[in-house]
Amino acid sequence: MSQSPPERAPAVPNGPPHPPLPASTPQPPTQQTVHSLPHEILQADPAAFARGGVPLTENDYAHSSADTGAAENAKFPRISRPVPMMRVEYDVVVVGSGYGGAVAASRMARAGKSVCVLELGRERWPGEYPVGLLQATPEVHVSGNIGKNGEPVVDATAGDPTGLYHLVLGEGQNAFVANGLGGTSLLNANIFLPADKRTLQLPAWPQEISANPASLDIYYSRAAGVLQPVPYPDDFPQLKKLSLLERQAELMGQRDQFYRPPQTTSFTNGLNSSGIEMRASTLSGQDCTGVNDGSKGSVLMNYLPDAWNWGAELFCECEVRYVKRDPGNNAWLVLFAWHGDKRAKFENFHTELMWVKAREFVFLGAGALGTTEILLRSRDHGLKTSPEIGRGMSGNGDILSFGYNTDFEVNSIGRENPGNHPPVGPAITGVIDMRDTMPDVLDGYVLEEGAAPQALAKLLQGMLELMPGKVYPENFGLTEKLRHLFSRAEARLLGPYTPGGSVNRTQIYLIMSHDSNEATLTLENGKPYLRFLGVGRSAHVKELNEMLAKATSKIGGTLINSPFYSLLGEEEITVHPIGGANMSTDGTGRNGVTNHLGEVFTGASEDVHPGLVVVDGSVIPCALGVNPFATITALAERSVEGVAAKRQIGIDYTTRNPRLNLFEPPMRSFPLPRDMARAQHAISSAAGKSGIRFTEVMEGYLYIGDDIEDFQVAADAARGSSTSARFLLSVDSYSTQNLIERSDHAALATGTFACGALSRDPFMVLRGEVQFFSLDTDVADGKNLAYKLDLVSSDGKLLHFNGYKTIDSKMAFSASKTWKATTTLYVTLTRPDKTVVARGVLTIPWRNFVSELASFGQTGSTASGRIGATMDFLGYFASQTAGYFFSPLRALQYPTLTTNGYYQKQPPTEIVTLTAQDGIQTFMHVYTPESTPGSRQNNQNGINDRLPPILMIPGAAVDYQIFALPTIPTNAVDYFLARGHTIYIPTHRVGRTPLAKSTHTTFSARLDIKAALEHIRRESPSQVYVIAHCAGSIALGCGLLDGTIPASWLRGLTASQVFISPRFAKTNMLKARLPLPLPRVYSKVVGEYFDCTTSPTDALPQRLMNQLLRFYPVGSSAEMCNSAVCHRSELAFGRLWSHSGLNEATHANLGNFLGGTNMRCLMHLMRMGSSGYVMDDEFASLITGVGLRRLEGLKVLFVQGGKNAVYEPENTLTSYELLREEFGSAGVGRIVFENRGHLDCWMGKNAYTDVYPAVANHIDEVMSGGITGGAPGKS
């Protein structure tokens, strides 16, 4: 049996111990070393024992990378949170999630701080990274300049800014970085090599480091303890590219400088230092596009899960633009553009920024380019900084080249599914380290072999062969040329993986050396522009190219510059941009942007901004000549420890995480306030479901103040003062099913609201609600698109945004009105105490509507689910809108037995039976105040007299409920009881009572009113004040005119809508003058009684009538509705209200408030309404000289709805003028309520604001004896 090779320290390179990791590098006990595996497994093909995969095997959230279709069906964890779950304030905000940002997040979370991490890219786990070119292409984002060097900038922005691959086009050199949760660690080559001591002693470094480079060892060690780098194991399968590099080292006389460098790739299955289960590498070589086998030790696998487990909250697709102090100078504001929900589709996306507040620290870890850009933009927005920002940058001396078509198989093209093919290995497994061999440290370099990803496999040959400047082998005779020719043909015909083909024989080189550190980053037109000046150190680069040509020639290959060299304007590309916020050489802002701890200077002095710390590669002041991430991580560890110590903040470095299950809650979390708990429930309840999302921009004008109540008037006034407002709001329904089924049909809303008159910074909108077609309880028949948003300003001001779009019958059959209804938002801003701050109107312009459509997207794990969610939402939206567009065709609303929307009201004190002089018995509801004052002082009129009892007389087909309506907050009974009145409400014989089915008329109902007055007079010696409505007012007028009721019994009268001169409105007049009266037709066909209530089970004639009444003329489209009761009452009496005056509960329960009428009564009303005067049962006029004289001395207030569709509003004017002509102006008044109809003067949702007070004022005037009469008024 074969033996395992002897063990050696896994972190020590194979070769000379340069640069060794500190001896104290911890090896977590849970990490299994490769040499503990049986020999037969170690020598096997990786596919035989390491099928690949991802962490958390117990959850099985992704299959092995060898399983076809695994990614589509996989389940992946998410440690980042939806942006709607962001808090307004944290102790610490970390910008970026690469090495530096992840260190800051982890350490501050372990210090007990609340931490927010903002990352531009998206969260991806192994199994989700692109594989082929088609998958990778949409992930490419290009920015920078495509113009010629030295000429004006030509912007090159293209692609998705949150894409995984970011190519920055610069002048002199280009850069390639990664975006995603984990930053560039997701795509780098994993090589953990500390900077050599000579480099750290260069004058560019601050004295705190250059004077003692070894002081960094503890931080390298700490970083290694988390990242756990190990060399490629000797006993793993032999890698051809690694063997070839070793051969080249020998041929070049550099064997002693060759070794296998430590790398953060896992070669075993087991837990890592942070409690995440790693999988052994499948040796796929896919590092540059993302490794899907779960072996790559990016910070997504260690520092970030550790931060999450200790309570950090991570958010993706958040592009930080700049930072500044908050208005109180007590904290930092981090302003960012959220790319979620396709918000970038809108113009001004980068100016309408969201923000989060950091109470203690902001750590900038967005990478050298990202952090430098943020600091430059922050300076433009007023942050005081060193003038050195953006200077002294470096490409780390990167050179990418290819040894094409060598004499050896190299196998350097990645395979997602290695199977039984020869393994590629991690991207880099070997290094020729020439840093210690050069007398001048600036001539030192490292040469490493590499691997190209599968996505480039089919393109590589064409790209290489088209490159100019090839350097052929020294001995390139006929035989060699023929071999090259056949190898090229073989690759072209059989593919890039063909063992003898030219692509499979290509060695890939990556050099890191020292450049001139003269690159700059500037902002031009608000966008970053990168210039590399003197990047090549031409003599040094020439030497390196000669070395590469020699090394390639010795293996029979052709040296070719990077294929990107030609494609990118004959300029090199770096994957290691560093600098831009350089550490100062002398501890002041004159010679750097940050001090030795990364704290940002406030100018040229040594003063720093408290809590603003840079922790990424931008602080590195010169090229390192080696892979930089070990140094970036070590410096970040040092900075975080240093700034924490300054504030006496302790960090727990010792407590180890248990095995982490990323599908479960973290070990530590901060309490959720109520709104966050609701939002979290909404999101979690949508698990496994699909939803929709979109972004909306609305803009308009808000009037600051509460003195204008009309929205449009307020908006017009605000337009005149240029008080504009605008919101950029993303709406997320994580489950369309939940949205449709919820009673409020709500989705989460996140974004910003801007109004310069209220705050210089945008208000944040977090966890707001947009309700889709929620029932509008404030209107008779309509629905709302309601916006209920809590706004938080940067100075801590809290406001509530209440906006609604009204969807109702006004838009019927009108495309323009439908557009207006769905794009016009009526807005009220209030303080927490409900006082009004502003009102106005916001709208969606066409340009924003197009962008809104473009932003529409779906969420969900399956394509079918996403399609279904989209169809469900669009169907729901279309059906709700179409219902009102085709309003008359909606399903009819029939009466129900429910009491939905009822308020708790004071019950009647007693119900009295009345017996009229003709023997007819009716009943009367009596209400007495709960606490009746003996006397009352009216402050307005100076009255000190007992309040009169009030007799309220309802009209035909209704009863006491029109005054004691249970569906409005304050009805007439509530209002007048609160004043101290005792109230009597009879239901007379033509009201809502079985007696109405007989042949009684309004004229005979006067006897019931007399009986009511007699009852009251027996109980109270004082005169009665009477409020009489419609048929009740007519009946009272009949009784007064014919002497049945003495006017002396009345202290005063409010006659509502009609009195003694009834004259129908237009539609009723047409019906009354038909040659064949409708009551006669109805009595012959159906019967003598017409009931306003109905049901779907009524007899066929009634059901047919209900359908025909859909199209009954109602006036404007605003009066359309689907209530069968409303339709039928309109047929009998005319439209009884302006729908705008009723609320939904009243309109929905009309069947509980309306009765019917007999045909004789209806005919009597029609004769009076068409003639213009009251009549007895024989149709004789009661307007006689004797009758009118009986009204002398009666104090009357006529209350009239200006939009009355039962009686012409002028009918009360006729009665008013008649009394004034007869008796003079004293004691007679009239008020017209322009926007009210008939019954809504009493049943209206807000009648207590105008009608009731007007009547109360009349009562007070009557009681004070101060009535002198007055001209008709309006209200």
UniProtKB/TrEMBL annotation:
GO terms for molecular function: cholesterol oxidase activity; flavin adenine dinucleotide binding; steroid Delta-isomerase activity. Keywords: Cholesterol metabolism, FAD, Flavoprotein, Isomerase, Lipid metabolism, Oxidoreductase, Steroid metabolism, Sterol metabolism. Residues 13-29 have a biased composition (Pro residues). The keyword Lipid metabolism applies. InterPro entries: AB_hydrolase_fold, Cholesterol_Oxidase, FAD/NAD-bd_sf, GMC_OxRdtase_N, GMC_OxRtase_C. Its cofactor is FAD. It holds the Pfam family GMC_oxred_C. Residues 110-392 form the Glucose-methanol-choline oxidoreductase N-terminal domain. It comes from the Eukaryota. Residues 1-35, 52-73 are annotated as: Disordered. One of its GO terms (biological process) is cholesterol metabolic process. Its EC number is 1.1.3.6, 5.3.3.1. Belongs to the GMC oxidoreductase family. This is Cholesterol oxidase. It comes from Tuber magnatum (white Piedmont truffle).
